[in-house]
Amino acid sequence: xxxxxxxxxxxxxxxxxxxxxxxxxxxxxxxxxxxxxxxxxxxxxxxxxxxxxxxxxxxxxxxxxxxxxxxxxxxxxxxxxxxxxxxxxxxxxxxxxxxxxxxxxxxxxxxxxxxxxxxxxxxxxxxxxxxxxxxxxxxxxxxxxxxxxxxxxxxxxxxxxxxxxxxxxxxxxxxxxxxxxxxxxxxxxxxxxxxxxxxxxxxxxxxxxxxxxxxxxxxxxxxxxxxxxxxxxxxxxxxxxxxxxxxxxxxxxxxxxxxxxxxxxxxxxxxxxxxxxxxxxxxxxxxxxxxxxxxxxxxxxxxxxxxxxxxxxxxxxxxxxxxxxxxxxxxxxxxxxxxxxxxxxxxxxxxxxxxxxxxxxxxxxxxxxxxxxxxxxxxxxxxxxxxxxxxxxxxxxxxxxxxxxxxxxxxxxxxxxxxxxxxxxxxxxxxxxxxxxxxxxxxxxxxxxxxxxxxxxxxxxxxxxxxxxxxxxxxxxxxxxxxxxxxxxxxxxxxxxxxxxxxxxxxxxxxxxxxxxxxxxxxxxxxxxxxxxxxxxx
Amino acid sequence: xxxxxxxxxxxxxxxxxxxxxxxxxxxxxxxxxxxxxxxxxxxxxxxxxxxxxxxxxxxxxxxxxxxxxxxxxxxxxxxxxxxxxxxxxxxxxxxxxxxxxxxxxxxxxxxxxxxxxxxxxxxxxxxxxxxxxxxxxxxxxxxxxxxxxxxxxxxxxxxxxxxxxxxxxxxxxxxxxxxxxxxxxxxxxxxxxxxxxxxxxxxxxxxxxxxxxxxxxxxxxxxxxxxxxx
Lengths: 538, 230
Prior knowledge:
The complex is a heterodimer of chains A (538) and B (230).
Chain A: H1 11-19, H2 24-59, H3 63-71, H4 79-95, E1 100-106, E2 111-115, H5 131-147, H6 161-166, H7 168-174, E3 179-184, E4 191-201, E5 204-214, H8 216-265, H9 284-332, H10 340-373, E6 377-380, H11 381-395, E7 400-404, E8 411-414, H12 416-432, E9 439-446, E10 450-458, H13 480-487, H14 499-509, E11 513-518, E12 524-532
Parallel strand pairs in A: 7-9
Antiparallel strand pairs in A: 1-2, 1-5, 3-4, 4-5, 6-8, 9-10, 10-12, 11-12
Helix pairs in contact in A: 1-8, 2-4, 2-8, 3-4, 8-9, 9-10, 10-14, 11-12, 12-14
Chain B: E1 4-8, H1 12-24, E2 28-32, H2 35-44, E3 49-52, H3 62-73, E4 79-83, H4 88-96, E5 101-104, H5 109-127, E6 135-138, E7 141-144, E8 149-152, E9 155-157, H6 161-172, E10 177-179, H7 180-186, H8 193-210, E11 217-220, E12 224-227
Parallel strand pairs in B: 1-2, 1-3, 3-4, 4-5
Antiparallel strand pairs in B: 6-7, 7-8, 8-9, 10-12, 11-12
Helix pairs in contact in B: 2-3, 6-8
């Protein structure tokens, strides 16, 4: 038998493992989303820079708007300053976007005007109804929220002092170079993209426009794409794995059924127990099942052929033997030379032996026929066995039989004649291998559920590997030499190995089992037949 | 007047051997290889005894068919099956068709002759009421050794020759165990133990049919059978 593999994975587990390949989808998707995010960021940056440039262009060469403010720190309080600021704010408002903040500063880094807010009011999208949306809203969104960082809307949107005093883009813009920069909010909860553009008056930089936007819109977009990606992946994974699981379960169920069917079709001794139920499926497993069925059928035919061969052979040989023996009978009646008699006697002896062989060859088949028609009765196993042993003691004085019987009756249901035949065969077998004078022990004992009959003799041992095959038709494992030496009987009955086969047939008829093994003391062989007791003995 | 025996056997060698043996004993033998020939010849004139093989060439159950046809013509004609088939099934089927005996081909010629002679003797005695009764009485059992018939509590038990001989062998010495081997030789049979067992079973059934309390044949396991005087 092949050694069982150490790690055993069922087909189902393997297929489910294979479905883990689907888990690669989100990673591939993640890469694409990152690309998209970069692209969006670049676009956002371009747009913010463009806005800054547009605002700056609107303010170019209008130094008064800024100069006016530049005179005095408190200028905003004055009506003129207010008007100028209002004009700037008007321009800013015109260019303002939903989520951007635009402010203008002068060379002294004073804030002249500001418009817009970094915060973005998300419009409340009414959730459509339906089971799928319910799942999305109540199961998936919270799950994704665990995985993805939602851009916060309550970040600190104050303009940090260091931006005006030392922000890199502001410095650059005030020195005449447009610049942009990502910076975190002061509380670090969001990232702000700022682009600054110088405001020119002639060749002189008189101020700068700073346009700021959070990256929240990009993040929101990215998150939405991620959510969709994850949802799609999850759905595909669940559907894919589910389909594979169903498929694999079906596959392994069919294979298991095939295995069980194959195991049940043939018993431990290779005999076909029952016909193989072939499957009608059109795939490879169906093919496998059908070829199993064909193989089992052929095995059954072959077994039957083997089992019937002895019977057929004996039947076919009977006619030619009858020709020989009737010819010899006729020959005897003729006047023959005086020395012919001895040859006729030898020929007749040969024919007699052939007949004995044929009779024992067909015995098994005849027994099988008898078994089919036998009526069961209740009888005492001990009485049958003691009768048999008494018979052997009388018939075979050269052998010493020792009988052990239980005190009480051991009632079996079956055919006492057949049990007697079984004991005959066991005794014959034991006598064949026992030297004269050595004891042959015959014992019956019983407990509540099982009756046991054993015949044990001293003599040649069984090869270990053959113990189970003994009870098959035409198997004889102890060597004829050992047998002849032990029994010393010349011209003994032909030994075809059918005797123990008959024992098995009769034991099985009584729902019993038969086992042969070497004795514990290593001096001989014990054959044990055990019968289940149907009812408690009376 | 010599007796006329019809022999239906498909194997030429056996047919001729048996025919020779029978002729040597003074019987007149007509042999046929198959059913049509036999039927054609036997319809015009019935023999005194028909010995029929079951398998006749390609006609596997030709012997059964032939015996059924012969039985339809005469219910007195003695018929013996002589065949290679030794299964219980064939034996029962043959005897049910009304054959007087069922012999397997491994029977020796002297045994065959003994059976044929016994069969004729029985027929003769049946035809002419015997002057002297030769009987053997064992309690309720009465065996008529001339007619080879048996009765139990004055009711006839319809035994075949084989069965009669077996009962006779058992009842001769009540209480003595007869081994299967000695029963076989007493009944001029060469068969195996299982067939003896089924013969005994059939005999018991026949006695049980006339007396439900019959238990005179006792099985002594491992040794044989004995007749219980009672």
